């Protein structure tokens, strides 16, 4: 009788602790998912906007693509690291060739500002 009572008490405590852990895990994963959806909405909103002037630096900022999707997420490799993401290489945007760019090429030389002396 005494062994059965202590075993039931032990099982009850273990089940309660497991439920607490699951609740904490669910709460944390829910917070991460909410952050992800907020970042996705923010990126979608910024992608349709014109460049804006950054108040901190005074530089005109364009849309950035720094947010990764969920399928890019990998387990952390360092101590205390929850996730890792693949490195994304910076690539320079392609520019038109000077001969084909109408803004750069001009058939006649520029006129002097004040006339010839």
Q: List the uncertain runs.
A: none
**First and last CA, distance:** 117 Å
SSE ordering = HEEEE
Q: What's the alpha carbon Rg, rounded to whole Å?
A: 30 Å
Report strand %: 5-15%
Number of strands: 4
Shape: elongated
The helix fraction, in percent, is 40-55%
Q: What's the rounded overall pLDDT mean? A: 74
Number of domains: 1
Please give the order of strands in the largest beta sheet.
1-2
Main sheet overview: 2 strands, antiparallel
SS content category = mainly alpha
* Count of DSSP-assigned helices: 1
Subcellular location: Nucleus
Protein name: Zinc finger protein DPF3-like
Region (Disordered): 98-117
Organism: Poecilia reticulata (Guppy)
Plain-language structure description:
This protein has one domain. It is built from one helix and four strands; from the N terminus they run αββββ. The chain has one helix at residues 2-48, and strands at residues 52-53, 60-61, 74-75, 83-84. Strands 1-2 form a two-stranded antiparallel ribbon. A two-stranded antiparallel ribbon has the order 3-4. A hairpin with a 7-residue loop joins strand 3 (74-75) and strand 4 (83-84). The model has no long low-confidence stretch (mean pLDDT 74).
Comma- or semicolon-separated keywords:
two-stranded antiparallel ribbon, 1 helix, mainly alpha, transcription regulation, Zinc finger protein DPF3-like, 40% helix
Concise overview:
The chain is mainly alpha-helical and 117 residues long.
Topology:
Elements: H1 2-48, E1 52-53, E2 60-61, E3 74-75, E4 83-84
Antiparallel strand pairs: 1-2, 3-4
């Amino acid at each position: 009788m005494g062994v059965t009572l202590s075993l039931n008490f032990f099982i009850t405590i273990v089940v309660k602790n497991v439920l607490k852990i699951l609740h904490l895990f669910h709460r944390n994963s829910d917070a991460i998912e909410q952050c992800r959806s907020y970042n996705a909405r923010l990126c979608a909103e910024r992608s349709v906007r014109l460049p804006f002037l950054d108040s901190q630096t005074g530089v005109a900022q364009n849309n950035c693509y720094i947010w990764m999707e969920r399928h890019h997420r990998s387990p952390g490799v360092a101590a205390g690291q929850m996730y890792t993401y693949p490195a994304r290489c910076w690539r320079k945007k392609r520019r038109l060739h000077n001969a084909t760019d109408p803004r750069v090429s001009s058939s006649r030389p520029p006129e002097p500002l004040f006339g010839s002396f």
